[in-house]
């Protein structure tokens, strides 16, 4: 939750309590003790309104989430109990799409790794990175994706033993998008500007996009080099990035996840990256945030971000205003600005 929203909520609401980082137990106790007076809950990407929370609050009327994703809200239960639900769509689309492209470029051009190289004082002369390649590879300044399999993906390196490897070009690579909704479409538009052919898998085929449609994630992964997860988390998309999908993407492929952690089988992903069965990964989301699977932190061929898809000041302010607007509309008995239920 951002400080602007926090300030406005404490100024405008009678009872306001922020329960992150307090433990789930203290949150439960607080909810139980104040159950009679709680009419509204403001959730985010880590804390929402699950069945247990809803059952604790007989007076709950609205859940206004500071997120577009609603996987932390039990929508069926809200419907059943007549609780209104609102989220923050549209205002974060551009931010999240920008970050997806940024992650793809950072991962393939090894920007974060190169930054660590400079900071660690390892940069001694221009083109140091060439030291890691065999002589014959030096002729290939920009290896094509088909060359990448020849370079051993370097893993488990400590910073002291580190030398960056050759980068992979993002422009022109085949981009596959999982979920062609608002955010997926905005990512596709950006990738097109990089000259990338676009394909996608979505709940349904979208007419008139000009993008190639695949009816499942495995076929999509087998036919692209950069696979971007941009779909909502539902029971149908949980673990959609399975071992089969990872292997279809292969050692020349890169996975980008700006959706949700549980979209990915994380242990399988870490294994594939360590074994060189997958080229790299750029991840903004994880299954048990803020915990990141230990295996991933030891790898250089991944870029790890702390769920900052919508993290610009402008977008966070717009999201906060939507949350406040929805709460206000509810209190005034007006239609919600961005209703979900
Ligand atoms: C959301 O709001 O659901 C996104 O995860 C923001 O990054």
Automatic annotation (TrEMBL):
Residue stretches making up the D-isomer specific 2-hydroxyacid dehydrogenase catalytic domain: 25-340
Signal peptide bounds: none
GO MF term set: glyoxylate reductase (NADPH) activity; hydroxypyruvate reductase [NAD(P)H] activity; NAD binding
Every copy of the D-isomer specific 2-hydroxyacid dehydrogenase NAD-binding domain together lies at: 163-309
Tell me any Pfam family this protein matches: 2-Hacid_dh
Q: Which GO terms describe its cellular component?
A: cytosol
Q: Which Gene3D superfamilies does UniProt cross-reference here?
A: NAD(P)-binding Rossmann-like Domain (3.40.50.720)
- Matches recorded under InterPro entries: D-isomer_2-hydroxyacid_DH, D-isomer_2_OHA_DH_cat_dom, D-isomer_DH_CS1, D-isomer_DH_NAD-bd, NAD(P)-bd_dom_sf
What the record says about family reads:
Belongs to the D-isomer specific 2-hydroxyacid dehydrogenase family.
Q: What is this protein called?
A: Glyoxylate reductase
- Species this protein is from: Iris pallida (Sweet iris)
């Amino acid at each position: 939750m951002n400080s602007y929203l926090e300030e406005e909520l404490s100024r405008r609401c009678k009872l306001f309590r922020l329960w992150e980082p307090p433990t789930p137990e203290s949150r439960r106790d607080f909810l139980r003790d104040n159950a009679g007076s709680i009419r509204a809950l403001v959730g985010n990407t880590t804390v929402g309104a699950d069945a247990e929370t809803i059952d604790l609050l007989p007076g709950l009327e609205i859940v206004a989430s500071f997120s577009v994703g609603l996987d932390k809200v039990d929508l069926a239960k809200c419907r059943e109990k007549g609780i209104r639900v609102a989220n923050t769509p549209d205002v974060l689309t551009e931010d999240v799409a920008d970050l997806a492209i940024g992650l793809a470029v950072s991962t393939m051009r090894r920007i974060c790794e190169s930054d660590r190289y400079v900071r660690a004082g390892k940069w001694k002369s221009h083109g140091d990175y060439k030291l890691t390649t065999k002589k014959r590879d030096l002729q290939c300044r920009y290896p094509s994706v088909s060359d990448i399999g020849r370079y051993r993906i370097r893993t488990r390196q400590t910073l002291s033993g580190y030398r960056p490897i050759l980068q992979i070009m993002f422009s022109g690579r085949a981009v596959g998008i999982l979920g062609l909704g608002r955010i997926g479409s905005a990512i596709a538009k950006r990738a097109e500007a990089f000259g990338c052919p676009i394909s996608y898998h979505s709940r349904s085929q979208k007419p008139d996009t000009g993008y190639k449609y695949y009816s499942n994630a495995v076929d999509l992964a087998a036919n692209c080099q950069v696979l971007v997860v941009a779909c909502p988390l539902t029971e149908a998309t949980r673990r959609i990035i399975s071992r089969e999908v990872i292997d279809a993407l292969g050692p020349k492929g890169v996975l980008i996840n700006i959706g949700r952690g549980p979209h990915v089988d994380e242990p399988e992903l870490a294994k594939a990256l360590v074994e060189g069965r997958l080229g790299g990964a750029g991840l903004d989301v994880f299954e048990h945030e803020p915990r990141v699977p230990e295996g991933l932190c030891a790898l250089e061929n991944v870029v790890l971000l702390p769920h900052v898809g919508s993290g610009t000041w402008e977008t966070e302010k717009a999201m906060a205003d939507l949350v406040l607007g929805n709460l206000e509309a509810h209190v005034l008995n007006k239609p919600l600005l961005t209703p979900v239920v």
